[in-house]
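User: I'm writing a tutorial on reading structure tokens. Could you give me a worked example: one chain, its sequence, then its tokens, then a sentence or two explaining what the tokens reveal?
Assistant: Sure. Here is the example chain.
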Amino acid sequence: KKERGLTASYIAEVLKKNEAKLQVELGILRDNNLIECDVSPTGRIRRAKITSQGASSFAEATKIVNKETVRDTLNEIRDRLSTLEGAFEELQRNPSEENKKSFMEKLDTFQSVANGIAPIVKAGIELFK
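And here are its predicted structure tokens:
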């Protein structure tokens, strides 16, 4: 029996998704270096393989969430937000290039932490019911 592999059409069939929409989603993952893709001459994604960066990102996104991890994440967000607020206040007092750069770095850090909050909030709501 020949294995079909993880082609975009196979994934769309199994997940009962629109193949064109799936192609766009795979393209986003590819652009973020989370997967490598074999692309046909027409530009369609034929096969996708998870990169090591993708594997660690997916593992992080799907890790087990419990009351401790929810509490830890909320504390980290509070700390990052406090740091961001301090950088913003400093930027308002002194809008130098150095302070602008510092604020943007802290904003990037806060945003990366905040991006992971949606699944934690959902799991947290379930845990604390």
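What the tokens reveal: The longest strand covers residues 45-50. The beta strands are 35-39, 45-50.
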